[in-house]
Protein 1
Amino acid sequence: MAAVLEMLSYPFMVRALIGGILISLCASLLGVSLVLKRYSMIGDGLSHVSFGALSIALAIGWSPLKLSIPVVVLAAFFLLRITENGKVKSDAAIAMISASALAVGIVVTSLTTGMTTDVSSYMFGSILAMSTADVKMAAVLSVVVLGLFVFCYNKIFAVTFDENFAKATGVSVSSYNVLIAVLTAVTIVLGMRMIGAMLISSLIIFPALTSMRVFKSFKGVVWSSGILSVICFCIGMTASYLCSTPAGASVVLVNLAAFLLFTLFTIIRKNGRR
């Protein structure tokens, strides 16, 4: 308990906790829809796009967020459009954009001197990277995401499970898909500063997959994912502080442990019914 109080006495840790909790919540809620629609790897692809944009921004002396957010949003929009047309499968499109953006980032980094430390912090995350402005942006983002799920829950449900039915009931499927993709893009850009580009997609995938091991209803999975993501993040950050391990990797390992525990619980419950 004393160690936790000591951790909370540092302003940068408080910022990291508040910002991380908000980002984890957004990522987990959006992740439920993305995983069920089989778009789960879009997080990994967009994180690589963000890395490429950040590398270019740092090389030319621009603010990383001002360049990376519009670039990642455009990439998300482009991914949706080419997959909706049916000419390129979603996994192939994500792999193509991901590899290309990562290659651009690596080349720009290699050609620019003195950038290695800055890029490394974005690749693997740094709790020191979370500023007050980032926390404010995360707060606004969380309000938008929570508002979307509270006020448009039925439409999100319909778009997630059956787009044809949603269209028949008058729901603008393309608009909701674009909105989810844009919110995911912003979540990734904000989250990768602390979690890292290599690990940010895990915040989207793990809570949803873990919750699906136990809960079978959409509402149950949404509630469980949100709560689980916040708990795992807090435990991961505390473990990172106490053990001096990277914050992003610690959070991911706690999410992995939760997935394994939920899987074990499911196996035990099934065997108990026999």
Note: Residues 2 and 8 are 10 Å apart (CA to CA).
Protein 2
Amino acid sequence: MSNELEAFIEYISVRKALSKKSVEAYLSDLSMVEENLQKPLFLLDSKTILEYLSRYENKRTLNRKLSSLNAFFDFCYKSEFSNDHTKIKLAKIPKLLPKFLSHKKIMASLEAIDRSTWIGMRDYALILFLYATGARVSECLELSREDIDGEWLHIRHAKGEKERIVPIAEVAKLAIDIYLQEFKYEKDFVWANYQGDKLSRISAYKITKKYLGVSPHVIRHSYATSLIIGGADLRVVQELLGHASLLTTQIYTHIQKQDLQNTLRKHHPLT
């Protein structure tokens, strides 16, 4: 690892106080380029970097790596390691509406779950929890029993390590209580596998895929979509989802416009 890269990693770890996962992601992206091109990063030009990164067909993956590189080059320029203020243009990604399921579809799938065993109770409670809170799957799996306080949920392991408190529907809390009453292991965490260990991300994905045919993140989109269609304020939705920027939340306004258009076509005599 070059001295400049080492200094950058120290800067984002100490001065910027980024989360451990963020630091690891930066280190992985940057050290990979440096090691493969066998040259200190700050000495590489844009053309060489883009030629190397052209192997990545997924534009989101490419842009994440370019963003890491741009942050490093900005640091080098401001730290006077380099006289060039290099900034590589990101790839254009078409805006896609987030995939979501209707409330009717989710509730029908929940009712189809066999809750005669504690595994079935867990699966039911897990999906209902995701839909009732809009939590990310990582936030959900880190949930401990003390994080649920009455009608409120304390999300401590949020993205970017920004904690938030959100309301939780009584029906979801009741489902969790019933599942935990049947759960035979004395553990602090809520979601467990059949061996009594903490449920993994892959297992959570398999559960939502089994009953709904989608990933846990689609349930998060469904939660947000239901709020927007129901008339919720965009900034409130931003707070509930834990989005750092309102721009991230604004993608759901496209769904709201689509819903308004469909309503107009259905009910207005001129359409």
Note: The chain has two domains: 3-78, 103-265.
Protein 3
Amino acid sequence: MAFNRELSQFGHYVFVDDTTGKIGITTTSTPNVGIGTTNPEYKLDVHGDARVTGNLLVSGDITYDEVVGRNLNITGVSTFVGVSTFQSDVFIGGDLDFKGDLYQDGQLFIAGVGIGSTNTRIGSDVITNKIGVGFTDINFVGSGLVVTGAGSTVIVDLTDLEVTAEATVPSLALLSSTTILNNIDKNKSFLTNTVGAGFTVTLMAVKSPGDFIEFHDTESTWDINNLMVETQNSEQFKNHLGTIDSPLACDVAGAAVKLVWTGNYWRLFT
């Protein structure tokens, strides 16, 4: 070939240490060494595959088109430009900081929970500084809790909140004789027993709009022995047909009656 040269002609470039056996190229500018190419553009220009069975130490940058490997250990800041695909699980032992949206299976992740945010758009369904844009967001700020859904926000002050694991459902009191209800009896349901005789229950004098009382015919005897419900201060009852003067006669066997104070009269529901 026109470019064949004897080894002695490389003496200007190649240095051989007889003691250590090391071989080096002494120049820092040229020549370039090519494997698989006659026109190397780098100090070592390999066209084709290369295999390294030991460690590859690089003190500068590595630029590559594709890489396939395992047990990749990267320390320091790593920047990925473009699409990076991970076929298996990704474990992150520290913080994850990203810009842009979070997607799940190609869909925008919208079931987010914001924790520790200090910026809340009251009346909207968006809490900033969180993962996702959730329909319902839970935001912990100091000793408070903000729960935001589309169009509504509930703010809870947790400073003096006591939580107990016990929960009981109060039993229904049984009435079987004439009774005058007081303030502590409002917003309760009562069982009534008129088997022996009918009797009268007088509603409480102190109440607020929205307070209620509920009566149940326990033994289905209201049609025989009526339960009479009486108001104080000549207050009236009202059903879908109109107003009813006190007392109200409950005379349907097995029925239940709910009375809700509106501020003007007792609204009757059966």
Note: The chain has a mean pLDDT of 77.
Protein 4
Amino acid sequence: MFGIQYYRQIFKLIFAVSLVFISYIPVKAQTVNNQSQPNKKQPKNPPRQQNSRKKPRKNFVYFRQPQRQGTPRGTRPAGSRQGCPISEKQQLSALVPLTKETSGRELRWGLTTKANPSFWFYVPHRLNSINNAKFSLRNRQNKTIYEKELQLINTPGIIRISVPDNAISLKVGEWYQYYLFMDIDCSSKGVYRKEFAQAWVKREAIASGFETRLEKISLRQRGLFYAQNGIWYDAIMSFAKLKYEPGRNTEWNQILESVGLGRFSQVRVIDCCD
């Protein structure tokens, strides 16, 4: 017969082996479970990582950029020409959200519901340094469908360019590209630098009767509707109109900031080109 001490040793051994086996099962099951269900919701990030995220600002105007569907190819970023230095702050720019492609190309594009939307540009140059300025609207095949020589006044600043109703109407579902060309005198020796800003616009259809309903709500509500639905040109136009009301430039500043154009939010808007 075995003594009590012997059975105690056997019991301790069985208990130790059981603990090892039990502790192994959850780890193994968790590994298999993660591999077989890759789409299962993962545990939340540690609090330190969550706190590092930027929280949406209350009552802030955000522009929701839509998915790129059938957008044209981007272009290489513009630089200085003919030996005239240029910085980002001095660069002629279209006020349109920028998409950067993996190839290094850049694409500025937006949507509108209007047949004749307005186009916004930042002109950093003083009037006496601008030799000439020209606006050009082209179809996707790069064929010019509207062009106009501009008479600028009181630059630098932000300008708005509109295409007359009797000149051309954008077709629903079609892409158009537009340019602002300038010859800039960048030295005392009469050396000119050719500059241009370029972007794309596509007209989207709007439900019958819905535009009339939009006209009956406030400018702010209208602008928010366009911003939340990714209609850039109509959103910025709504907030531009609101900007001229005393103390109502907040929405204009915020929508520019929301798409990385905040550096232009405090630039004055000047009369031009209508």
Note: The helical segments are 4-36, 47-51, 210-215, 219-228, 232-243, 250-258.
